Amino acid sequence: MTTPKPKSQGLIKSLVGIRGYLSVVVVAVHLAPFAIALAPVTRPVFLPIWHHAYVALDMFFVLSGFVVTAGYRKVFARWPGWGVFGKFLWARLSRFYPVHLAVLAVLVGAVLGARAIGREIPHGGDLGVDLLRQITLTSGWGGADSLTWNGPVWSLSAEWFCYLLLPLLQPLVLLLRTRWACLAGYLVACAIPLVSYTIIGFDDGTITYGMPLPRALGFFLAGACLQQLVHVDRRVPELAGRITGPLAIAALGLIVLTSNLQLSTMYALPVVGLVVLALGEERGWLDRVLSTRFSMVFGEVSVAIFLTHVPWLLGASLLINPRTFPGAWGWLGIALLLVGVGVCGWLAFVLVEKPGQRIMRAMVKRPAKAPAASVEERTEAVVESPAPSAPREEARDEARTGR
């Protein structure tokens, strides 16, 4: 089969930009109970978001599978050796672990400090096993009784599990060498969480801390299959690219429909995930919006916002609540909470995330590397090296994809 020719070799800025807007949806989910308490009139807006907008996290998994496969499909086509694998994991870890540890340290300090003066700060966990699971990034591997400490870390933990399995997953994805095989693989991957949770239930506990791995693994694989489709076929990606806007609107409509039918919005993911494929074609108004400088910066800060917003909301709610901001003042309280989310995220990005990345990468003699996307691969996450054993800097993947 002739290798399909991609449209361009340019940076897919929209895949960076969309991360920021997805983080806004996640923030809105966690802001919802505070906003409803401060301004009850917002209930019709925030209640559906609170219960149904978690689909944004699933799209993160699809996006991650798409981007990581673009950057590492040649490296992990076969076992690259423990050295390359270790550097890959270290580079992935450098993207979020410094902020994660910093936030966790603040939380532990606050809990211990409060206990010293006879107070207790709710954090949902203990200083033993629960804290250890947060530090080792295993809190999102299932079997937990609740979300503890920094709750949103469960999704990064589940994604970390996908990274650990990448040497096994990537060769399987590369076996999909036709358009129909890739599309079938995509549907099968989407079916992993959908079938699993249809059987055991879509309740919040099950899909976040009880048994979240089918969710993460299934949608990560779905993204990987879409990237493989880009590599082996041009017709479907180009078609998706021509209807990026309508496809995104249809996906949003399907999310609204499933929520109104009291179904899990996760059922909309087979369509929602195709938006990632469409954005990879860099066409239309939606791509232009997501490719602006504002959107790019927003996407780069998304990890820091994701890791800091819940601790900020919980801490700030001690001062910003219906008692201190009664009546119409509740709107000001909501605004202050939102401003705080942005400030905390930006400070964590500038003061912790970027310096932490530099320090971690300086700790290895040669930073983790990945082959660059070839002309056939629709993203410039990386630059292809002469041999899988000598891929180029992971830093390029990080900087260009916002991962």
UniProtKB/TrEMBL annotation:
Keyword Transmembrane included in the entry's annotation: yes
Domain Acyltransferase: 14-348
EC top class, as a word: transferase
Coiled coil: none
Entry EC number(s): 2.3.-.-
Biased composition (Basic and acidic residues): 391-403
Record region (Disordered): 368-403
Keywords: Acyltransferase, Membrane, Transferase, Transmembrane, Transmembrane helix
GO MF, one annotated term: acyltransferase activity
InterPro entries linked: Acyl_transf_3_dom, Acyltransferase_3
Transmembrane intervals: 21-41, 53-75, 96-117, 158-176, 183-202, 214-232, 239-257, 263-280, 301-322, 328-352
Domain of life of the source: Bacteria
Protein name, entry field: Acyltransferase
Protein's organism: Actinomycetospora flava
